[in-house]
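Give me the fold.
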Amino acid sequence: MTFLKQLTLAGAVAVAGGAASAETVLIHGEAGPNRGARAVALQWFADQLAERSEGDIRVDIQWGGALFKAKAAVQSISDGVADMGSVIAVYYPQEMAAYGIADLPVNNPDAWVGMRATDELMRTNPQIQENLAEKGLVYVGTWTTSQVNIGCKGAEIRSVEDIAGLKVRGVGAYGKVFGEEGATMVNMSIYDAYQGLDTGLIDCSQGYSYAVAALKQDEVMSSYTLLDWGQVGGLGIFMNKFTYDSLSEEQQALVQQTGADMADEFGRLITAANDKAIADMREAGVEIIELPAEERAKLVASGEKFLDAWVETANATGLDGAAMLEQYKALIAKYTERRDTQGYPWDSKS
């Protein structure tokens, strides 16, 4: 294992030199490139861990799938190909069923609320802890894609009735709900949505505001509807359990606290990026539509069958899906109330 090899090397140097001190180097596998808000947050995690440990812990991030691709992350981290890495739950509907709860179409549109609810669930639920341990994994921290909205060319979605007949590129269960409401779903990557909208292959594309800006999709959109519905949040950092258990209690506490704090930092980054993207779209002439609360409630109700399906999947893996979903919803309510009464954590910082 990488971590143990480096500890052994550090120990050998210490013995030979008499005064050298060991440095714990954790190799992190990341399938994505070193750019964008998530990359910034991951680098923040690495920098903060080094700073808080006063140089005792260093994270060596291997970007761009250098160690493993996204669909091989769970097995690779479990096998010790890397000490830790980024995991996307949607690629592991069975293995990471518990973490997939963050992808469900519940009434949970706020990025920070979603991350905090997911983070507390992953840290405190005994079933999840046991389930991950069986896979040789330890949860460290979470991100989110932020809330799912939809942009269209030559069409406007002002109500659920407007969905019927549209050709739509969807996102996970959110796309499935649109299919239930009469949309023709088109299997297409978010990276191909620009061309799809431009050529008329699709009428609308579900996605995330910051991604619309990054991929310049606003150039081919005439309207953008804020669904105020839910998000895809099952992506985060996991560590090899053998590596984690090899750390001192103080090092483990630093890893866990820094991972938890990452939700606040990424919440700040992604909220600002989304707000700017929406403002830029409006300035560019894209009509920004806010879906009325009663219409959003229809989408939430249509998504219930997919929550039920997740419960069955979770139950099949030995988890109590219904109890876990109730805990998750309660945590969403908890952090929504905290946001409403105390504001975001970064609001009080200069």
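Residues 1-20 have pLDDT under 50 and may be disordered.
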